[in-house]
Amino acid sequence: MPRSRINGNFIDKTFSIVANILLRIIPTTSGEKEAFTYYRDGNYAEALQNYYEAMRLEIDPYDRSYILYNIGLIHTSNGEHTKALEYYFRALERNPFLPQAFNNMAVICHYGDSEIAEAWFDQAAEYWKQAIALTPGNYIEAHNWLKITRRFE
C-alpha cells in the first residue's frame, strides 16, 4: 500500500474517533452532524456540500475553523493536497490553536514531491514544531523524526 494511502487512512481513522467523541460532548448543529456522518461513511461529496452549507450559516470564527479543518480533511482523503492545505491555512487563520491542522499539513509536506523533498521536509518540520508547541506530549513520532533528522531546536 502506498505511503500516502496509509497516512490518509491514519488521518481518517483519527478524525473519525475524535469526531465521534466530540459530537457527543460539544453542541453542534444538525447540519454539522449530518456532514460528519456523510464523511464517516465515505460520502465525501455529500459531506462537502453540508460543510459548505454550514460555512454559509456559521458566523463564529472558532466554529468556522473546525468546519474549514473538516473540509481540509475531505480534500486530504481525496488526494487533493493543495486544496487541503488551503483549508487548513484558512482554519488556522481563524483558530491558530489547531495542532491537528499543523500535523496534517506536516504529513502532507512530509510525503510531498520527492524532487523537492528536502524543502518539503523542512516545511513539515516547521508544522510539526507548531503542533508540538501547542500540545506537548502529543505527536511523539513527529517529535522523534525531528530529533533524528536534527530539525528539533
Please write out the topology.
Elements: H1 3-25, H2 30-40, H3 44-57, H4 61-77, H5 81-94, H6 99-110, H7 117-134, H8 140-148
Helix pairs in contact: 2-3, 3-4, 4-5, 5-6, 6-7
Strand-residue proportion? under 5%
The Rg value, from CA coordinates, equals: 15 Å
Could you give the order of the helices and strands?
Answer: HHHHHHHH
Shape: globular
**Beginning-to-end CA distance, first to last residue:** 33 Å
Number of helices: 8
Description:
- This protein is mainly alpha-helical.
- 77% of the residues lie in helices and 0% in strands.
- The chain has eight helices and no strands.
- The termini are far apart.
Give a nutshell description of this structure.
With 153 residues, this protein is mainly α. 77% of the residues lie in helices and 0% in strands. It has helices at residues 3-25, 30-40, 44-57, 61-77, 81-94, 99-110, 117-134, 140-148.
Key attributes of the depicted protein:
globular, 153 residues, single chain, mainly alpha, 8 helices, disordered N terminus
